[in-house]
């Protein structure tokens, strides 16, 4: 998953979005960082994207986003609450998408409006996997990290194949030539 933070002056690099990735047995709070694609290690299972939990375990009703050390809150997006389940199989990588938080200035209101959107179309998820493969094979990184990254390559390649199959299934069939 990758984060994107857009302020009224443009995209920023400092900040983040916390969200929960939960299954029946696990409740993992993940931090989505702007301009970085992250891999999260979780046990196989069926997961959902949900609001973070409070001190006593109850789900928050709002999402909090940190923009350069300044926190903004908005109702947790219904589109994310109703997102399809995320099935994680053993030894597999699942590309979730880009979580974008955008601040918009509203005339007459001193506080900017926060909207949070998950972009999870096939092409976006495919681009994330391709970028992760490219970053892992960067000759500038240490040999230990590159060797470790090579172990992920098979799972990333399989993720690309799965995304291509999803893309092909979603595309209309090519009409036959007359």
State the gist of this model.
The chain has about 180 residues and is an alpha+beta fold.
Strand content: 25-35%
* Main sheet summary: 6 strands, antiparallel
Gyration radius (Cα, Å) is 18 Å
Structural class: alpha+beta
Number of domains: 2
Q: Distance between the terminal alpha carbons, to the nearest Å?
A: 44 Å
Structural shape: globular
Features:
178 residues, alpha+beta, six-stranded antiparallel β-sheet, four-stranded mixed β-sheet, 3 helices, globular, disordered C terminus
List strands and helices in order, with pairings.
Elements: E1 2-7, E2 10-12, E3 15-22, E4 27-32, E5 45-50, E6 62-67, E7 70-75, H1 78-81, E8 86-88, E9 98-104, E10 113-119, H2 122-136, H3 143-170
Parallel strand pairs: 1-9
Antiparallel strand pairs: 1-2, 3-4, 3-5, 3-6, 5-8, 6-7, 9-10
Helix pairs in contact: 2-3
What does this structure look like?
It is a single chain. This protein has 178 residues and is α+β, with helices and mostly antiparallel strands. It has 2 domains: 119 residues, no CATH class; 51 residues. Helix content is 26%, strand content 33%. The chain has 3 helices and 10 strands; from the N terminus they run βββββββαβββαα. The strands form 2 sheets. Strands 3, 4, 5, 6, 7 and 8 form a 6-stranded antiparallel beta sheet that branches. A 4-stranded mixed beta sheet has the order 2-1-9-10. α2 runs antiparallel to α3. The protein is globular, with a radius of gyration of 18 Å.
């Amino acid at each position: 998953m990758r984060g994107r933070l857009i302020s009224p002056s443009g995209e920023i690099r400092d900040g983040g979005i916390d969200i929960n990735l939960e299954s029946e047995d696990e409740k993992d709070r993940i931090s989505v960082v702007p301009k970085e694609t992250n891999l999260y290690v979780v046990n196989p299972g069926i997961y959902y994207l949900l609001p973070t939990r409070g001190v006593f375990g109850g789900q928050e009703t709002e999402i909090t986003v940190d923009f350069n050390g300044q926190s903004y809150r908005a109702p947790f997006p219904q589109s994310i609450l109703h997102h399809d389940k995320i099935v994680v199989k053993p030894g597999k990588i699942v590309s979730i998408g880009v979580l974008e938080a955008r601040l918009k200035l509203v005339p007459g209101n001193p506080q900017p409006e926060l909207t949070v959107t998950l972009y999870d179309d096939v092409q976006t998820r495919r681009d994330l996997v391709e970028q992760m493969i490219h970053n892992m094979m960067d000759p500038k990184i240490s040999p230990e990290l590159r060797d470790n990254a090579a172990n992920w390559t098979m799972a990333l390649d399989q993720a690309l194949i799965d995304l291509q199959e999803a893309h092909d299934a979603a595309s209309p069939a090519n009409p036959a030539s007359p």
